[in-house]
């Protein structure tokens, strides 16, 4: 089993990569909204995007009451 | 679709890479001098390495119909040995005379130390004096923004032809100042570190396609030459035309690398049979 320090170190770059991909996804969405807005008015937000934003709040919790993965799977089951 | 892989460390890869790249449309690769994973001690070690990438590697690539070009440099990670750097730099003109060497690279910064900055300046200086192209490595991860800023500061203090300099490994936080200063930039696609194929396409859509090169690097570490093809697929899936893809992934390398007349692959344009007949 890994120590806390090993977990933090071993999975840092992979987690950094995954967070950057999520950030890029949200930036991509904003850019698409801006493009559509110029032609067709402001695009409505999306239920899936709202779930992603809620998921990020869950992930960021310092002391979650239960496992983050369980909470996220339940959240995404509703989308 | 014909593809050029402008930054590829072939000596770290197997022939199977060449075979698969050829089957996927890669017609040329350019191999910058790289870090060996340890700091080399002797100038002769570099000279044999330069011989390997400028003499032997083109023959290996040719077996798969791929043109192979190369660059020479002392890696930024080895710049803390200025005596070694100076000794190796003396031999650069011998390699500039080789038929497939395009210039100096990858020089650049790793930790942005005084010795690294002096090495970068010496590399750029000899390249400019010999009318060569320059490929500049920018640091990874936490040092990226600071190191890129230092690269721009070093270059700003020199008399350089900015259109002949390619600043590589740019990301979202460093692309703008490099393009605004008039340099070419490169996106390096890695599975985990550096840029991803999707983020590269995001930047192409945001900044346009002029003076941008996309590459996989592909070295002895965790890397994959086919992140380049993954990027092309992502670009096409977002609705960009075949010609637009050719402009980025074939013609832009031709435009930058072709500033050295040894790189004689011309930009291409697709046309339908009807256009050919009527034209």
Polypeptide structure, described:
The complex is a heterodimer of chains A (79) and B (279). By secondary structure, chain A is mainly alpha-helical. Chain A folds into 2 domains: 1-42; 45-79. Chain A has 4 helices and no strands. The model of chain A has no long low-confidence stretch (mean pLDDT 91). Chain B has 279 residues and is of the alpha/beta class. Chain B has a single domain, classed as Metal-dependent hydrolases (TIM Barrel, Alpha-Beta Barrel). Chain B has 11 helices and 8 strands. Chain B has helices at residues 15-23, 43-62, 82-89, 92-96, 114-129, 144-156, 175-180, 197-207, 227-237, 242-257, 273-278; strands spanning 3-5, 26-31, 67-72, 101-108, 133-137, 165-167, 184-188, 212-215. Chain B has an 8-stranded parallel β-sheet. Chain B is globular. The two termini of chain B are 22 Å apart. The relative contact order of chain B is 0.13. The A-B interface holds A 13-14, 17, 20-21, 24-25, 27-28, 31 and B 192-193, 196, 198-199, 202, 205-206.
What key attributes describe this structure?
heterodimer, A: 79 residues, mainly alpha, 2 domains, 4 helices, 76% helix, B: 279 residues, alpha/beta, TIM Barrel, eight-stranded parallel β-sheet, 11 helices
